[in-house]
Amino acid sequence: MTSSPRPPHVDGPPDPTDRATAPAGEAARGYLLDNARAEAGERFVRLAELFDGVTRGHFDRLGVGAGSRCWEVGAGGASIPEALAAAVGPTGYVLATDINPSWLKEADGYEVRRHDVAADPPPEPGTFDLVHARLVLVHVPDRARALATMVAALRPGGWLLIEDADTALQPLACLDDSGPAQRRANRLRDAVRELLARRGADLRYGRTLPRVLREAGLVDVAAAGAFPIGGPACNHLEAATVRHVRDELLAAGLTDAAEIDAHLAAIDAGELDLTLAPLISAWGRRPE
Known about the structure:
alpha/beta; single chain; Rossmann fold; disordered N terminus
């Protein structure tokens, strides 16, 4: 799919003041960047700009094509389910799941289900040619159970593709820590990482992916990394993320409103060369 990313819910985002848009238990599980806030839509669009080309390249490498059966886990936005639907065509099947699937639309050629990969059994076990999750397991406290669920959904010979960040491997927002604005950005990145860790995220998870795939019984395991540095998509993603977690940062005493506002102003002014943690993609095949 070559079209530009678009907001993934054509009817508009869920009302960020309506917490009922999130399923019961999502807040209790402590997911910091939940789908119920308007900022989630902006994050999905910018993540698509930054990483969808990388992810689609892996789909091509793993042989996703006409007739393939694919499960997109923790889909969030619509861009990857749409790309998979375009790749598999009318003879294939794409299932997109999320604990809060409100940003997804079945009319775009894929089926949507509410599903918690760390708590629910696998849908249609043993039937999928590809199971994919991007930036999901790093946030799931019971990662081992979630991974086992995804492996169980594969047919013999099917591929599991997991893509997750390793924020401990590269923790900075600005690699060039050259001035007050850059140092402020790095302090706030540390604060967001602290919030993630408190919610059960594993900030070192990305680097473990090849090992955990082998330990799950997969073969032909390999991995690659992507590391975007600078540009409008990084800027927009940073601003959306900081706005998303602003209240949590203030409530935790990790920063103050003046520092957040100054950081957002520096982003808007184009003063920062922002970067992200590396996205590590790892894949393995269920033995025949």
